[in-house]
Design goal:
The complex is a heterodimer of chains A (about 325) and B (about 270). Chain A has about 325 residues and is α/β, with parallel strands linked by helices. Chain A contains 9 helices and 18 strands. In chain A, strand 9 and strand 10 form a beta hairpin. Chain B folds into 2 domains: about 220 residues, HUPs (Rossmann fold), CATH 3.40.50.620; about 35 residues, no CATH class. Chain B is globular and about 70 Å long. Classes of the chains: A alpha/beta (about 325), B alpha/beta (about 270). Strand 10 of chain A pairs antiparallel with strand 14 of chain B.
Chain lengths: ~325, ~270
């Protein structure tokens, strides 16, 4: 265990662009690594990614291991795994972090098993214990509790949720080393026969979210929220029951089993605030709650609580904002 | 098509209580049911079997009571149910759990397709499926929302952050399916009654000794451990309340957020 040193971040890329969760992990990773007294590295697999690899240095990596191969341009599970496992065995980082994106959650478990090490899913916090080991914090039981988890084996691996850590500071004067590695290509066994934008909204990226819950009487009434959301340059969100009832698509679902969001402004309309919902939006910068029930749990979390019927409050709010933006 | 479906019995998450002092979940506080995501797994397996024929083997690791979940799976169309029960399996994290399940799948013999749920509602890691695939050395596709073609080959759709991939694979392969993949049907009364009489096979650690290293089961084989449990805190919220006449409330609220620079922050002056 003693010959493991350093913290490594997997930098996921899509269409040649680094996923921003990698910059968050580098920011947090640098902070943790400084406390332990170790270096930070990053690994990126793709094709013609050199400029982007440089960005990883600006965000905190001392070394970037770059695998450049046409076969790695899009996500290829077995080739990504194979090359990462070889690298980790060679470099022996004591911490290995991935974003808890679809790709990270699919790839991370395979890497962990291949390395016979532990993997903590979906962390929302990371810390360092007195003995220098990693403390991985994740919500459990619908977000009612936070479990602090430690890993006996090395590397200590976690997938970390997007948008819970602040993005690192970009410093274009930072120096680091890009180390080009030879990609070993194995039979892929999976073939991408098509890829297309699924037209889904990306709620995790939205600056403003106007969400509806049980206070809505009909599926069509989401249009009331949509008008306000559009005015604020935002998107519509939903609590889980309405998604389960088929009123709106799952891509709109905010909550522990849906999307974790961290917008600048979250407006919860007719949402009482189950722990499962709160777990998905509690880190929003500003929370506004509109509910007829003054004892609704959502109000405890709100910066601004408006006690009233969303059918009256939201249209008035929309008008007020209209008059200011025109 | 020889299909294996790993399933899990979970507590009813709306009822379950936890003991913060002890850092433990009191599973006796809530009823037990099949992990809701596994309903889509069983439906997917049954649809494939209806089309191509074959067998469905449901497998689960858990306490003796988890037999009920396997009987339920058999009511929903599984031909065989295998329950892995042993004290040696207890306290397993995802690495040990996936190792134990993969070992049992090895012992079952040849298979074509393993279908797992996207995740369980209690553990909520989504890791066990892909981990089983790695233990078995087969490819997997996670977050499958559509089975486009199952026959000579497998073609599935999976959604990854706003991009829909269509992926083709041969067999054997493991997939994890989301709730979008189908709408599970309810078992008929007759199926339920038949399942009550169904026999679930029970395997202990010894039964896996020919295919597994017992040191990799349970707590012993689990590198991760819960160090402590805390309750999330809510602090630093303004907590301004507006009540009474809606006109007044909205005007008061607008004035405050304007003053706080929140409207400016989202591009409205």
């Amino acid at each position: 265990m003693n010959d493991y040193a350093g913290l490594m971040v997997f930098a996921e890329q899509r269409d040649g662009k680094i996923h921003p969760v990698a910059y968050e992990l580098l920011g947090k990773g640098k902070e943790l690594a400084d406390r332990i007294g170790i270096g930070v590295s990053s690994v990126v697999l793709g094709h013609q990614m050199e400029e982007e690899a440089q960005e990883l240095i600006y965000y905190g990596a001392d070394k970037v291991f770059l695998y450049d191969h046409p076969a790695l341009e899009d996500f290829d599970l077995l080739n990504y795994k194979h090359n990462i496992v070889r690298l980790v065995k060679e470099v022996k980082p004591e911490v290995f972090l991935l974003g808890a994106t679809h790709l990270g959650r699919s790839l991370g478990p395979r890497v962990a098993v291949a390395l016979s090490t532990g993997l903590t899913a979906d962390c929302t916090g990371l810390g360092v214990d007195k003995d220098g080991s990693l403390i991985q914090i994740r919500p459990a039981f619908s977000g009612n509790i936070l479990a602090h988890i430690k890993t006996k084996t090395r590397p200590q691996m976690s997938t970390v949720r997007y948008k819970v850590m602040p993005k690192g500071v970009r410093d274009a004067s930072r120096k680091g080393e890009i180390i080009k590695k030879d990609a070993k290509i194995v039979p892929s066994l999976l073939t991408i026969v098509n890829r297309e934008k699924s037209g889904e909204i990306n709620i995790a990226e939205a600056d403003v979210i106007v969400s509806g819950g049980r206070g809505l009487k009909r599926a069509e009434d989401f249009s009331i929220l949509a008008e306000l959301a559009k005015l604020c340059g935002g998107v519509v969100g939903s609590s889980r029951p309405l998604v389960d009832d088929g009123w709106i698509g799952k891509e709109h679902q905010v909550g522990f089993s849906g999307n974790t969001v961290k917008p600048k402004l979250y407006i919860a309309c007719g949402i009482s605030g189950s722990s499962q919902h709160l777990a998905g939006m509690r880190d929003s910068d500003v929370i506004v709650a509109i509910n007829t029930d003054p004892s609704a749990p959502i109000f405890k979390l709100a910066d601004y609580a408006i006690v009233g019927d969303l059918y009256e409050v939201v249209p008035k709010l929309t008008n007020e904002i209209k008059s200011r933006s025109s | 098509m020889r299909i294996v479906v790993p399933i899990k019995q979970v507590p009813d998450m709306t009822e379950v209580k936890f003991d913060v002092e002890q850092g433990r979940v009191d599973r006796s506080s809530a009823g037990a049911e099949i992990n809701p995501f596994d309903m889509n797994v069983l439906e997917a397996a049954v649809q494939i079997k209806e089309k191509l024929g074959g067998t469905i083997t449901a497998i689960s690791m858990g306490p003796p009571q988890a037999e009920a979940a396997l009987k339920d799976a058999m009511a929903r169309g599984a031909d065989r149910g295998v329950l892995l029960v042993d004290r040696a399996f207890a306290g397993a994290d995802t690495l040990a759990t996936s190792y134990t399940l993969a070992s049992a799948i090895r012992k079952l013999g040849e298979f074509d397709l393993i279908i797992c749920g996207e995740k369980t509602v209690d553990g909520d890691t989504g890791q066990v499926g892909p981990e089983i695939a790695e233990h078995l050395g087969i490819p997997h596709v996670a977050y499958v929302s559509k089975l486009a073609e199952v026959g000579e080959k497998l073609v599935v759709a999976c959604d990854m952050e706003g991009v829909r991939y269509s992926i083709q694979s041969g067999f054997p392969v493991l997939i994890t399916v989301t709730k979008d993949v189908n709408t599970p049907r309810l078992p008929s009364l007759r199926d339920k009654l038949n399942a009550r009489k169904a026999k679930v096979e029970v395997w202990d650690a010894e039964a896996l000794s020919s295919v597994a290293d017992k040191g990799r089961f349970g707590v012993q084989g689990s590198p991760t451990m819960v160090h402590k449990i805390t309750i999330p805190s809510e602090e630093g919220r303004k907590g301004r309340v507006f009540r009474g006449a809606v006109d007044e409330s909205v005007k008061g609220f607008m004035a405050e957020i304007e003053k706080a620079g929140i409207l400016g922050g989202i591009g409205i002056k």
